[in-house]
Amino acid sequence: MAFLLVWLITATVLAQETPVEPVRQLHDAMIKPASDAIFNVAREAPKSVEAWTAVAGAGLTLSKSGQLMMLQAPASNREKWITLSRQLTLVGRTAQRAAEARNLDALMHASDRVIVVCETCHAPYRHRSSR
Ligand code: HEC
Q: Which CATH number goes with the domain that contains 36?
């Protein structure tokens, strides 16, 4: 518990100075694994209840990661970051709903939209904030 508190405070302090660390943590813990699970559907369609449930969970995780990314908006060009974080939440939710409905076409479509959101944010922000 104390450790968690220290981590939270550290993360908050870091966020004020530079948004880089929390952004990486969100990628490692949520964005990368969740989007991989969604992208994988194009190669291998879910075939069991468990597989569909896992993809729906990935959609939910992705949508939550968008809400957390919103809190990491950099000082400059803030609006665009917030818009893109919100889009991540929306496409994550769309993927979740498609998986819940076991609609493969809708899921692939959502997956394509996820990629666009990732790339649209990386174009202006990724290079700059990794310095
Ligand atoms: C709101 C902005 C934003 C969105 C949306 C976003 N990213 Fe990122 N991403 C970043 C930033 C900023 C960095 C650079 C972070 C750094 O260098 O510390 C980054 C870095 C990365 C990296 C390399 C960093 C690492 O951990 O090795 C990968 C891979 C990545 N993003 C994948 C994705 C994928 C996949 C998605 C979509 C599902 C996505 N990102 C959505 C902002 C975003």
A: 1.20.120
